[in-house]
Amino acid sequence: MTRIVRWLIRGGLLALLALAYFDLPPLLVIGPRTRVYLIDVSASARKTTGSESFTPDDALRLATHDLATLKPDDLVALVAFASKPSILVPLTPVSRASFNVRLEGVDGSSTDLSAALDTARALAGEGEIVLFSDGRATTGRVPVERIRVPVHVFPLGPLGGVDASIAALDAPASAAPGSSVQVRVTVESTGPWQGELVAGAERRRLEFSGAGRQDAVFTLAAPAEVQFRLAGPPDLCPENDSSPLVVLAESEAPRVLVVSPPRPDLASASEADVVILQGVRADAFSRADLDRLARLVREEGVGLVMTGGSSAFALGGWNGTPVEDLLPFWPFPDERSAVVIALDRSGSMNEPAPGRSRPRIEEAASAILRALQAMHDDDEAALVTFAESAHLRCPLVSGRERSK
For position 317, what pLDDT does the model report? Predict the structure, then answer.
């Protein structure tokens, strides 16, 4: 009997290891199911052809009807998306869920399907996604490999007809003035279609006997600015029948200087069109370097970008520097604040902090010191400690006196 139990335990462990290695879902789902409904409300998804279309409103009605198939303690959410996702109904038990909402207020001029799926994935956890979309993403490839949960897809849009579209342009961003550049244009169609691809005075004949893709090559002289368009029978989505292309002369291509650790250097800033400060603190430069950068931005028209993070704005010490006035907002606002910090000194604070080796009181003291270092000189702070009773350890002092 002992041997049989041992083999059963070993077999179970091997099965769990196999599931983990191949990243397979568990065979038994315990607890409530989570389902996220994701509805495309972009302009292309809303396009109708008479009554032969499945619209976002139809998708909402189908999602509402689907609630009846779930258990009361299952969790559901509703997300609408176009240029960005909008959570209309957060995760809610089916027993309290209501999809009595309007699919409005979302910019439908573009479709960021990738961001929508990321949002739905974050809500779904280990659950599933029900996607209603026409599949026309305008923000590039959708990285479906990172979704890693079941996605059930229902197509939106006209139920019949053919759509021809310009799917891709392949051309260099810049070229030497007067040189010839080749532009490859990829056109795809969902069914039989005949027409022309037009670029200025040039035309290329296209014939599709069914769904597929075709490439057409144009030769342009740099610099070039041209509008490609499809000319032919009306199709389902004219919005994707044209696309602009700009090929800059190499002398016109913007020169970008990225300044970042470990060796940040502004010496060549005068030769750049745009300077990007990425993950670098103000004290990495001399005052003269910052004065020169400010002058280049104000007087020479050099662009300036500062990325976020722990080395940007106030945390990076950029307040009070010549660069501060060039930023879209101040590292510190005009309004000053007075903060009272209350520190627990009871016995439980001597226990190790969760996930740390130091006591909680030491972690709290370190956090307070970091907050004081980041405060503005004109802000004020006071410290109160408490256990059985409270004591004022330090009255309000300004940031200039933070050492107290």
Answer: 84
b/e per residue 219-235 (b: at least 16 CB within 10 A)? ebebbbebebebebeeb
Say if residues 134 and 113 touch (Cβ distance below 8 Å): no
Residues facing 231 on adjacent strands: 196
108-117: pLDDT as tens digits: 778 888 889 9
Give me the half-sphere count of Cα atoms (radius 13 Å) on the Cβ side of residue 199.
Answer: 22
Task: Say which range, 142-146, 231-235, 325-329, 361-365, has the weakest mean pLDDT.
Answer: 142-146
pLDDT tens track for 187-232: 999 889 999 999 999 999 999 999 899 999 999 999 999 999 999 9
CA distance 137 to 135: 6
CA 278 to chain centre: 18
Query: Token digits for 10?
Result: 């070993």
- What is the pTM for the complete model shown? 0.47
Instruction: Compute how many other C-beta atoms are within 10 angstroms of the C-beta atom of residue 32.
Output: 16
CA 138, 155, 52, 98 dihedral sign is negative
